Amino acid sequence: MLTLYSFGPGANSLKPLLALYEKGLEFTPRFVDPTKFEHHEEWFKKINPRGQVPALDHDGHVITESTVICEYLEDAFPDAPRLRPTDPVQIAEMRVWTKWVDEYFCWCVSTIGWERGIGPMARALSDEEFEEKVKRIPIPEQQAKWRSARAGFPKEVLDEEMRKIRVSIDRLEKRLSESTWLAGEDYTLADICNFAIANGMEKGFDDIVNTTATPNLVAWIERINARPACIEMFAKSKSEFAARKPFAKSEEQAQA
Known about the structure:
- The protein is an alpha+beta fold.
- It has twelve helices and four strands; from the N terminus they run βαβαββαααααααααα.
- The protein has a four-stranded mixed beta sheet, covered by helices on one side.
């Protein structure tokens, strides 16, 4: 039996969620509500002591880390539709992209997302409420990130993260001008893992992701959104973005 604990179809939670739908595997989705800080509740920390989603429970064995879960599904269910190539060279190409999104692309987009989305949520809490929430976060670095979001990230940090986002967008656009999919001619985990971060950027970062500046990237995002598994995932999944748009710009940014 498979149970996936996640924030729904966005960011890192989207990776294994879409992989499960693409592979046609039966599973029980368990939505963990970040607006209620459920991932820091004791019941969830018994599942993942780090208090982070996604987490996959497969017959009592818990697998964490989004890309690791995706690879695990490939190994545990080899007869399901494949999302990983069989050729060693192509596997390496795929993993270059999944490693890059985890170590570079995800982090710069995440910081801007925290500034725009998590910051207002954190500032809406009283000092006492905020400290109570932070106290339950098991990872010191995450505690620091919440404090930074509440205070507002320094301008030089945001400027550097936007520079990295532009580097990321240029890399994706260049690759997709050469190939239909990131790791070659086949749709793989490389696409799923990068789509998890890139999807929605044509709305939240429309000045740099649009049909004029990045036609190949936008077409790739549209291709994945049009896949039956992706349509089904969004139709059936509860989302953390129910009350707010992903990568929503602040009023000041929208008017800039």
